[in-house]
Amino acid sequence: MPYETEDIINVLKSAREAKALSQRGLGARAGVPQSHISKIESGKVDLQLSSLIQLARLLDLEVKLVPKKALPAVDSVVRSTTPQATSKAAASALNKLRQAEIVTQTLRTALPNDSQLHRASTVLRELRSIPIQFQLIDVQALNKALKPFDELRRALARSAALDEDIRRITAAPEVVNKLREATGSLQALRNRLVHAVNVTTAGPKPAYDLEDDNE
Questions:
Q1: Domain parsing of the chain, residue ranges
Q2: For the segment 84-128, what is each residue's pLDDT rounded down to a tens digit?
Q3: 101-to-41, 97, 123, 149 alpha-carbon distances in Å
């Protein structure tokens, strides 16, 4: 699924969940079966412009083309109208991101040569360096990827946090696997967010590029 399409789908899905609508409920409003909404949200079908506009309006969203220089103002208005529940979820996700970075630093103190922890630390640092409005493009994916780090934080809180405790906790096979999967998910999310930043900040392309893409 292209990055651009994935971002649009994530916005639609988040809007549906914010309205407490099930896939079946949205499908009923749109006149399509639940399975079709599921395929759209999983990127298994191409989302046509007419379908995008229809779904967006059902979710109180509008599809508009705006001048690039107007994007900061548009983003500001969108943030100011974000529901309080979404704002709380975003704040919670950002707090978990900071805590994950602290946990990783603590683990690396005891295991300075662990390549997996080094990789996780690097990805978390890079995520934190991305502008905050882009970090929050997909709060759900961020929370899911950060869950193993939160579990590690809780495990460390229950122990004396001595080096031997850290080595014992991080040596458990299930912890190793979860940490590897979480780091991979964070890397994928980081790549998507970096792409979103680049798309937003890139200069306008000449018109002939559109034709070149179809060759």
A1: 3-65, 83-201
A2: 445 566 677 778 888 888 888 887 877 788 888 889 889 998 888
A3: 30, 6, 9, 9
Looking at domain 83-201, which CATH architecture does it have?
Up-down Bundle (1.20)
Query: What's the token pair of residue 39?
Result: 């395929």
Q: Give 129-159 pLDDT, tens digit per residue.
A: 877 666 666 777 888 888 888 888 887 777 6
DSSP code per residue over 96-157: HHHHHHHHHHHHHHH-TT-HHHHHHHHHHHHHHHS-HHHHTTTHHHHHHHHHHHHHHHHHHH
Q: 3-65 — its CATH code?
A: 1.10.260.40
DSSP the chain: --HHHHHHHHHHHHHHHHTT--HHHHHHHHTS-HHHHHHHHTT-S---HHHHHHHHHHTT-------GGGHHHHHHHHHHTS-HHHHHHHHHHHHHHHHHHHHHHHHHHH-TT-HHHHHHHHHHHHHHHS-HHHHTTTHHHHHHHHHHHHHHHHHHHHS---HHHHHHHHHSHHHHHHHHHHHHHHHHHHHHHHHHHHHHHSPPPPTHHHHHHT-
